[in-house]
What we know:
Blueprint: H1 17-60, H2 69-93, H3 99-105, E1 118-123, E2 137-150, E3 153-165, E4 172-174, H4 189-200, H5 206-215, H6 222-247, E5 252-264, E6 269-280, E7 289-294, H7 299-306, E8 312-314, H8 322-325, E9 330-332, H9 335-349, H10 352-371, H11 376-402, H12 410-420, H13 422-426, H14 439-455, H15 461-479, H16 484-494
Parallel strand pairs: 1-3, 5-8, 8-9
Antiparallel strand pairs: 2-3, 3-4, 5-6, 6-7
Amino acid sequence: MLDAPQIAPEQLAGLGESELRALAAQLLARIEHHNHEIDWRDAKLEKLAYEIAHLRRMKFGARSEQLNAQQKALFEESVDADIAALEAELEELKTPPTGDDKKKTKPERAALPQHLPHIQIGHEPDSTTCACGCTLQRVGEDVSQKLDYTPGVFTVQNHVRGKWACRECRTLTQAPVPAEIIDKGIPTAGLLAHVLVAKHSDHLPLYRQEAIFGRAGLAIPRSTLAAWVGVCGVRLQPLVDALKRHVLACAVVHADETPVAMLAPGKGKTHRAYLWAYAAGAFEPLRAVVYDFTISRAGEHARTFLGDWKGSLVCDDYGGYKALWERGIIEAGCMAHARRYFFELVKTDKSTIAATAVEFIGQLYGIERDARDMTPEQRLQVRQQRARPITLTLHARLIAQRSKVVDGGATAKAIDYSLKRWTALMRYLDDPALPIDNNHDEQQIRTWATGRKNWLFAGTLLAGQRAAAITSLIQSAKLNGHDPYAYLKDVLTRLPTHLNSRIDELLPHLWAPAR
């Protein structure tokens, strides 16, 4: 049977009844598929247009004036980035503009300051010989300017594209315009990488970066910086999706969550959103973490992120994870949380029961330090021979002491936490791929705790999700020993022309700088 698009009109006469029926069915299926695709695209366009209009009302509405000056600056830069991100998505869905549309929408950009250092970068054809055999003559050039930045110094790159013409066949040859992460924008990949790392790793809000750039000779408006961040967030999302796929290919995953304030526009106050961190197991060969920003702490967010994943999840006793155990996911407890309850008692009540528990748990951690760099087989053997006897003794003592303490007291709560989760806490003894605690993931959340002191809150849900995506790449680059600036600069340079089928090559744990 011929494929429908390949059939010439004259071939139809030679088809039998059964073949015509099959062809009609194929065409109807194709039409239905295209109709679904059009309906989805129209719905997506309508949704994005609505969200952009809503964000603009949030930004320019009178209610936003209820915020103080600092809150308003942070909120507006988040909204500017959101609008730019949504417009970038909208542009990808729309059909390519006609030549007339391009002329109408061409932005008028102010010239870059002449006092900044200028660097000439030439782009010439690979060959100056025309296809007809004649030698090309240089007849002019086009110059485009890009703004680059190294800490403290702006540089203007003048990209000169010479025009070469053949006098015989009237052919014009010119080197193509290099693809950029922001089409027809002025920032280089280096400047964009610097803005992203400063905002999401060094925790510098854009209004502070605007002042820093001003001291370097060019105060870039925060609205422009926000637009750059928004577009970069959209362009980098496929990388984050691929990174998530790699993390969920691991047999052991860490999970933890922390509250993040998110602004409630129009009310002048914030409400509690949550940032979740999902990291590859501490003993997994993959070094990566993916963050997920959600509107609440509901367990459904963890279930949505993990999807059909099956494996061992290292986490605390938060109730939101409990529905996961019914789906076949194995719970691995965190000994650090159990120790924390006893350690607090030692500090406040000088409890001998708690002091004994802390001492026994300390011995377990000493064994883990010895076994950290061992092979899985050696680690399992050490845990069985040295750690298991200690845990059996500790368990027996906790059971014996529990009957002697009053219900509802701090000591009873500390003992109950460990006894109720004992099976989960002890799983690491029989599985060398499991760590003793969730500290590896808590370290990945620490960067957000530092950031909260600087940027105070997330301006919008989209801003939080974008920050989670970009920080996933930055933190994963750090885990693999990369300078996040060098990593993002190279990725943003290569991404516009990189094949989507080879996107994994740009992931932090697989990345190698371009030659």
